[in-house]
Design goal:
Blueprint (H helix, E strand, L loop, with lengths): L1 H14 L6 H13 L2 H19 L2 H15 L4 H18 L3 H18 L4 H14 L10 H11 L5 H6 L1 H6 L3
Helix pairs in contact: 4-6, 5-7, 6-7
Length: 175
């Protein structure tokens, strides 16, 4: 796979005279990897967290104790799902990536809700409702500037206020 992209890239660099010798190839390769350094460090610590979370069985422990607590206060069914929707909506304000939120929440809430008689599919639907309902107002949403740019493309007077005020139409369109 690497050769499929490497060989045309080198040929293009030679044809455009960007690559003159093998040192130019090494410099271009290392400069492109520099942009990945921060991401690699972040992933290292995230992987350590997930490994420790799995090693200690903390997710299972929290799920069992959480289910026991929910049963003791008689919170189940629709009220429990509404509470979970609100929790995922609040978490969405602080964590931008959908998959990261679900990776943290799923090992705890899916088994907990299964003990409460709620299927994993319903748990994920409740998560998606809470997550998608607050995506547009999340300060960390990476796509918000893109949405504003598209809105301005079709209307010169459109801005952040227009996008936020038309929020209900974004929900209807699947956001």
């Amino acid at each position: 796979m690497m050769l499929i992209f490497l060989i045309p890239g080198i040929v293009y660099g030679i044809m455009t005279k960007t690559i003159k010798n093998d040192k130019d190839i090494a410099n271009l390769t290392s400069s492109s990897l520099e942009t990945m350094a921060g991401f690699i460090v972040l992933i290292f610590f995230a992987a350590q967290f997930i490994a420790l979370f799995n090693y200690t069985n903390m997710g299972t422990l929290i799920a069992v104790k959480g289910a026991d607590f929910l049963q003791s206060i008689h919170l189940d069914g629709i009220p429990l799902l509404i509470a979970f929707i609100l929790v995922s909506a609040c978490i969405n304000i602080f964590i931008a990536a959908d998959s990261a939120k679900w990776a943290i929440m799923a090992p705890v809430f899916v088994p907990m809700f299964m003990q409460m008689g709620i299927s994993p599919e319903i748990t994920q639907v409740a998560y998606r409702i809470g997550d998608s309902a607050t995506n547009i107002i999340s300060p960390l949403m990476p796509f918000f500037p893109l949405v504003v740019a598209f809105a301005q493309r079709y209307g010169k007077n459109n801005g952040i206020g227009t996008v936020v005020s038309n929020y209900r139409s974004y929900i209807c369109c699947g956001w």
